[in-house]
Amino acid sequence: MTFTLPAPLGAPAEGRDLPAAAPQPDGPDPITFAGRAADRLRQTDAALYDLLAREAARQNQTLMMVAASSVADPSVLACGGSTLGNLTAEGFPGGRYHAGCGVADEIEQLAIERARAAFGAQDAIVQPHSGSSANLAVLTALLSPGDTLLGLDLDCGGHLTHGSPASVSGRYYNAKGYRVTPEGLLDYDQIRELALTHRPKVIVCGASAYPRAIDFARFREIADESNAYLLADISHIAGLVAAGLHPSPIDHAHITTTSTYKQLYGPRGGLILLGRDARQAGPERGTLAGTMRRAVFPFTQGTPDLASVAAKARALDYVAGPDFAELAKRLADGAQAIAERLSERGMRLVTGGTDTHMVLIDLRGTGLTGDIAEEALESCGVIVNRNRVPGDTTPVRTTSGLRLGSNTLAARGMDRGAAAACADLVADVLDALQAGSGVLPGAVRAAARARVVELCARHPLPGYLS
Ligand code: DSN
Asked: What does the DSSP 8-state code read for residue 395?
C-alpha cells in the first residue's frame, strides 16, 4: 500500500525523515490510509455505522440551539479521525517519552502557535482533554486540598468545576461562591468583599450560564487586592473573545482556560492560555507557564490525544482567519435577535437580554419547568437545554429555565431574521405548552417540525452537504 506523506513543516530532525511516496491520485487517502474509512466501518460494523449515520442525520435535520455546542467543519473531524489517534506521545514537543513523535511535535507546535495567534497569548497548552480537564489541572497546580477557592455559584451560571460540591473542585477545596444581583448581574462589590473576607488562593471568573459581558479587568483588581490567582474560564465566549467582540481576559487573568468545541467550532478538548503573567514565577518552581504544563502532564493527564490536538490546530486556523470575524458577528447578532423576539413575545429573560451568544429564559411564573419545555421543543426538532436560573429551587434535572445559544445557527449562515424565526418557534411551542398545561398539541408539533425542516434545508450545515 502506498500513501502520500505531507511535506514536513521544517527540516526534519535527524533520523526522523520518512520516505515520501509518490502521490497516488486514485489511492487511499493519506490521512487514514484506509481508503474510504466510512465504507470500511459500514462493512465491518453495520450496527455502529447505522447509529453514527442516524446521529449525522439528526444533526442535519434539527435546529441545534444548545449554547454549549457548535458544529465543527468536516476538516476538523478529519483531523480527529486521523492516524494520529494511534500515537502514544507523553510529554511535549521536543521532550517526549516515546519515539516516533517527530511529526506529532510539529503538529502540536503548530496548534500552540495558532492558539497564541488566535488569542494574542504568550503561551498555550493544547493538550487538555476538555475544558474541565484544563480547569482541574489549573486548580490542582495552584491549590492544595482544603485551600480556598472563590467561584460563581452553579445556579447563578457558574460551572461544576468552579467549586460545585458535585465536582472535585468543591469536594477537595474549600469552595466559596459569589452570586448575582436580583437582576442576574455580577456584583463586583460583593465579589471583592467575599475575596477580602475568605482570602481565596484562586478566584474563578467566567460562566456557563451568564449572558452578559464579564469585566475581567475588575476581577484582576480584586484578585490583586486579595492576593489570589485569577483563572478566567472563557469556554462559552472564546469565539467572541478571539474576534474582539468581548473583552479579552488573556492579560488580565493569570491563566485562561477554554474548551474548544463550543465557540471555537473545534473538537472535544481544552486549552490553557497565558498572557503577561506567563513568565512570572509559579507557586513552586519555574514559571507559571511551566507549572501549568506540568499540571497537565504528568500531574492530571497521561498521553495527549494528538488527533484532537491536530483538530484544534485546524479549528484555530479558522478562528484566526478572515471568515471568523463574520461568523462571530453573526452569532452575536443572532443572540440579540433571539433575545429581542422572545422579549416581544412576553418571555422573561435573565438579565433582560444578552451580550453574548446565550439567552436564558426564566420560566418561573409560567407553570412550566425546564425539563418539560426542553422535551417538547426536542419533539419539534429544536434542541435546547433546561438550565437553572438564579435562585432556582427546583431539582437540577427539572430546573426553572431554558438556555439557548446561537453558535450553530450562525454556522448555518442564519442572519438576524432567521434567528428571530427560531425564537418564534421556541415561543410558539412554549405558548402552546402553557395553554395546554404542559401538553403540546399534535398540530402545533407538526407545524413546528415542518418549519424546522424548512429552516434546516434553507441553511444547511456548512461543508457537510455541499
Ligand atoms: N459546560 C457545559 C455546559 O455549559 O453546558 C457543557 O459543556
From this structure: -
- What's the Cα-to-Cα distance from 185 to each of 105, 248, 350, rounded to whole Å? 44, 19, 9
Contact between 156 and 351 under an 8 Å Cβ cutoff? The reply is no
Q: Is the pTM of this model over 0.70?
A: yes
| Nearest CA residue ID for atom 1, ligand 1 | 208
- Give the atom of ligand 1 at the shortest distance from the alpha carbon of 69: 7
Query: Phi and psi at residue 386, in whole multiples of 5°?
Result: -60, 145
Write the pLDDT tens digit of every residue in 437-461: 889 999 999 999 999 999 999 999 9
Chain-centroid distance of CA 76 in Å reads 15
- Separation between Cα atoms, residue 171 and residue 145, nearest integer Å: 9
pLDDT one-digit tens code per residue, 90-123: 999 999 999 999 999 999 999 999 999 999 999 9
Domains annotated for the chain, with CATH where assigned, are: 91-319 (3.40.640.10), 329-458 (3.90.1150.10)
Query: What is the Å distance from ligand 1's center to 45 Cα?
Result: 31
Backbone angles phi, psi at 132, to 5 degrees: -65, -40
Give residues (CB < 6 A) around ligand 1: 68, 159, 208
Quote the radius of gyration of the chain (alpha carbons, Å).
23
